[in-house]
Amino acid sequence: MSTLYGIGIGPGDPDLITLRALAVLRKTKVIAWPAPAGGESLARRIAARHLPGGCEEYAIRIPMDAARFPAEEIYARAARDLGVHLAAGRDVAVLCEGDPFFYGSFVYLFARMREAHRVEVVPGVSSLTACAAGLAAPLAAAADVLSVVPATLPEPNLRAALGNCDAAAVIKIGRHLAKVRKALAATGLLRHARYIERATLPNQRIVPLSEVGDGDAPYFSMILIHRRGCAWL
């Protein structure tokens, strides 16, 4: 029976692809990958040197417009097209930055295909753990409660989430940095905030949050906070 694989390929450094992911990529002849509506796919670039020669590739081009995400018609079409390969007995590997089940776009294909097809998820190094390693900042310890907080939340929700946590990772920062900064200040956590962008990539950047302008944060950035300042205290 053919298999649809959701392959976690890590946060950016090709060396962080797991041995299991590498084994699946080397044996699979149909490779799908997400990409913006126009431009290069980061997932494809991460995996490029690991892809087998002669494989068929399928680009899932997704509009990044928040009003259209998730793009239902795009995922429905991809599920139909990839389902044709699976029905013909060909395995399909779908590349996913980080881990497929940690805010990964693969979940929208999984939801559509899990009942009709055999699906296997290969976990990957997530942006959460990659950023913690890059910042040399343990996420949590002992009985700490770790919260993952999307910066896209309204500011009152951000304050509520940050105000009740021991440790937090604020993700999807992008154009929301000014709002996040205000929420951190309101909850007394601003002095414990650590900022990183493009973790594990050649252009990784780690700077004090105070040095980041409100309009300067890329989508692939994260802020880690621990209420005690350090998890081991």
Give me the secondary-structure topology.
Elements: E1 3-8, H1 19-27, E2 30-36, H2 42-47, E3 56-62, H3 72-87, E4 92-96, H4 106-113, E5 118-122, H5 127-135, E6 146-150, H6 155-163, E7 167-171, H7 177-186, E8 193-197, E9 205-207, E10 221-226
What does the model show?
The N and C termini lie far apart (51 Å). Helix 3 packs across helix 4 and helix 6 crosses helix 7. The chain is an alpha/beta fold. Strand 6, helix 6 and strand 7 form a beta-alpha-beta unit. Strands 3-2-4-1-5 form a five-stranded parallel sheet, with helices on both faces. Strands 6-7-10-8-9 form a five-stranded mixed sheet, with helices on both faces. It has seven helices and ten strands. The protein is elongated. The mean pLDDT is 94. The protein is 29% helix and 23% strand.
